[in-house]
């Protein structure tokens, strides 16, 4: 890069010299000096009587040319003085190593004996992907909305490396699995307070990954970014210091979710600097250790090295015997501790390979500069750009920490609402029939069928119809779950979360125009109506399997004849979850609300069923629909015990444990198993 840069700098210097020296030489050679002495009285009197002569005009133009040259020279001189002043100030601020720093450097060198000197690699250029969303190599701190790239995900309020974003999506999926596990189905009135959508930053990450999927790669964890930081601790200054600190906080906690050997220690002051007012309430629910001073940090670092986990909030006491690979990250405020405490912490961190990061100047070691995009700069390598770490503002960090934090023990909130403001009970449109809603295929004139239960697919005359744009397919499924329609704002907020609406109207219209035009060209029917700024599926031309499911539920709840057959029709009309093959963020609350209605039916029928064999069959159907629900397994285990099949009850218990373990829900298995299962 330097070999390419110096010729340009040389040419710029030559051009500047020519610009400064050329005009005076030309003027002096062709015209002479601007003034050849002061004008005489006769000359002044002659100029007043006839000001516009060839001589006076030539003199005026000459003076104007000299003034322009003087202004240019002044501007260049001012820029040179400013640059010299900045260089002088930087040299004055260049810190000399203190005795404590020298001690820390010596200890770090001894610990890394035989290893080459830490040098930050220059970040390689990354190709910009082509597609609906792209990300530049160096994202601007003012970028808004989500964007995905092989390198990372840009969201409103920050940037996440790709592997961190994927772990955010995995943690979000785990939130929904916990909600499924903890829900208690039955005939009693449902409590759907936990159906609230996930925070906006989380949904923006999910949407970016859904639009730009990459093949999963096996990994033992995620890169926290601390691997490039020096042993013995480092300070972070610059406009991105706090944003990088929040990124380290979130990244370390996500890594700890997957690998308990990654632990985070932080002080109250540092957590308050990072999270602001949310630090006190959110800090108690996070799997980290909050300390008061640096001596506590040094003790915990030593304790972790000897085999004890410093996870006060997670209450983990079962550390394995080998903890050599245990990664400890200590986040500090620049005002935490005095020099002796820093020295003890440096000794402990170097001895145990812990990483200490101070938000501000770090007297016990080097201080690096963090820019607003998350790039680190070593003070000795000013021209090299170091690793780029995750950067988050307070809002984005709080959103992401919400899916990591333990559940809030506060009272349940009122019943949640779906994105369109309606309740979680999905309404169905009036079917094109005169009698009871029919479950058989539609009339021949309704040649469009939209399947949304399972893999979404539009059919024309029974044949699959290719919806070319993923956004168009998403619009069809969204409108199927909102039969009363949705306006432009609701559609754009759901499909492109995190992006400003003003930039999405064109995308929405393009997707709508494409699907409406292609369907109309194929069969002459209108699939989507647009009335009063609301889009909705045309119920006269298209039927939806979800609407048939709702019709079956309505029929079963109102009929008084052969109710068992009616409820069985409901179960038959639910082949799979809503858009089971898709990961669109807005699906979560609606998908879970539909699933709960079905397992409620299973438990209600099982409760009223006098035959124990039929009871177990109904509960088994519910488990097939939701294999993570603890209450269903509890009832099924009791049914098997009542039938005297204790071996099957034990087998069910073991299978459920394995299911929870594979899903990452094995942290609280014992708590969620009933006494009957635990026996």
UniProtKB/TrEMBL annotation:
Stretches that traverse the bilayer: 57-82
UniProt entry tagged with the keyword Flavoprotein: no
Basic and acidic residues: bias regions: 139-151
Domain of life: Bacteria
Keywords from the named record: Membrane, Transcription, Transcription regulation, Transmembrane, Transmembrane helix
GO MF terms, alphabetically ordered: DNA binding
Region (Disordered): 118-151, 412-446
Gene3D superfamilies recorded: Winged helix-like DNA-binding domain superfamily/Winged helix DNA-binding domain
Any GO BP: regulation of DNA-templated transcription
Domain (Bacterial transcriptional activator) ranges: 544-670
InterPro entries tied to this protein: AfsR-DnrI-RedD_regulator, BTAD, WH-like_DNA-bd_sf
Protein name: Bacterial transcriptional activator domain-containing protein
């Amino acid at each position: 890069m330097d070999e390419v840069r110096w010729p340009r700098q040389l040419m710029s210097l030559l051009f500047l010299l020519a610009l400064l020296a050329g005009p005076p030489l030309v003027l002096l050679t062709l015209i002479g000096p601007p003034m050849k002495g002061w004008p005489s009285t006769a000359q002044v009197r002659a100029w007043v009587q006839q000001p516009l002569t060839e001589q006076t005009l030539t003199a005026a133009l000459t003076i104007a040319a000299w003034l322009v040259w003087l202004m240019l020279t002044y501007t260049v001189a001012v820029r040179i003085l400013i640059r010299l002043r900045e260089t002088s100030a930087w040299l004055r601020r260049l810190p000399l190593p203190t005795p404590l720093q020298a001690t820390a450097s010596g200890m770090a060198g001894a610990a890394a004996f035989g290893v080459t000197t830490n040098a930050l690699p220059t970040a390689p250029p990354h190709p910009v992907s082509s597609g609906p969303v792209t990300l530049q190599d160096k994202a601007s701190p003012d970028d808004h909305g989500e964007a995905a790239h092989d390198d990372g995900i840009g969201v409103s309020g920050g940037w996440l490396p790709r592997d961190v974003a994927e772990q955010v999506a995995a943690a979000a999926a785990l939130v929904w699995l916990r909600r499924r596990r903890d829900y208690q189905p039955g005939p009693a009135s449902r409590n759907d307070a936990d159906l609230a959508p996930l925070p906006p930053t989380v949904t923006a990450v999910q949407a970016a990954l859904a639009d730009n999927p990459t093949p999963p790669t096996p990994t033992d964890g995620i890169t926290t970014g601390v691997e490039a930081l020096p042993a013995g601790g480092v300070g972070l200054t610059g406009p991105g210091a706090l944003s990088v600190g929040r990124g380290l906080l979130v990244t370390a906690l996500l890594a700890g979710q997957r690998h308990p050997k990654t632990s985070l220690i932080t002080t109250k002051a540092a957590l308050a600097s990072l999270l602001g007012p949310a630090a006190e309430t959110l800090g108690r629910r996070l799997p980290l250790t909050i300390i008061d001073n640096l001596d506590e940090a040094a003790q915990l670092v030593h304790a972790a090295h000897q085999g004890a986990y410093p996870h006060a909030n997670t209450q983990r006491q079962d550390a394995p015997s080998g903890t050599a690979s245990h990664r400890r990250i200590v986040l500090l405020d620049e005002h935490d501790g005095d020099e002796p405490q820093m020295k003890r912490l440096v000794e402990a961190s170097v001895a145990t390979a812990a990483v200490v990061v101070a938000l501000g100047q770090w007297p016990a070691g080097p201080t690096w500069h963090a820019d607003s995009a998350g790039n680190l700069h070593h003070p000795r390598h000013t021209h090299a750009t170091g690793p780029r770490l995750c950067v988050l503002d307070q809002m984005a960090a709080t959103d992401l920490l919400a899916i990591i934090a333990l559940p809030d023990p506060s009272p349940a909130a009122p019943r949640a609402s779906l994105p369109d403001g309606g309740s979680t009970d999905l309404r169905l449109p009036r079917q094109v029939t005169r009698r009871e809603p029919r479950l058989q295929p539609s009339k021949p004139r309704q040649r469009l069928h939209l399947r949304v239960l399972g893999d979404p697919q539009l059919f024309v005359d029974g044949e699959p119809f290719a919806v070319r744009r993923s956004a168009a397919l998403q619009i069809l499924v969204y409108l199927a779950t909102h039969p009363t329609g949705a306006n432009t704002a609701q559609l754009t907020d759901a499909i492109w979360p995190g992006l400003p609406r003003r930039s999405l109207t064109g995308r929405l219209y393009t997707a709508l125009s494409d699907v409406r035009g292609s369907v109309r060209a194929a069969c002459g029917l209108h699939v989507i109506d647009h009335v009063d700024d609301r889009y909705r599926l045309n119920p006269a031309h298209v039927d939806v399997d979800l609407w048939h499911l709702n019709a079956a539920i309505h029929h079963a709840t109102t009929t008084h004849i052969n109710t068992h057959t009616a409820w069985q029709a409901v179960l038959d009309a639910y082949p799979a979850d809503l858009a089971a093959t898709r990961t669109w963020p807005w699906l979560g609350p609606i998908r879970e609300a539909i699933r709960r209605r079905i397992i409620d039916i299973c438990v209600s029928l099982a409760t009223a069923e006098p035959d124990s064999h039929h009871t177990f069959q109904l509960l088994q159907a519910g488990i097939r629909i939701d294999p993570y629900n603890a209450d269903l397994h509890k009832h099924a285990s009791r049914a098997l015990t009542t039938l005297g099949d204790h071996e099957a009850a034990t087998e069910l218990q073991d299978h459920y444990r394995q299911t929870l373990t594979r899903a990452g829900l094995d942290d609280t298995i014992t708590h969620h198993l009933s006494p009957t299962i635990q026996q």
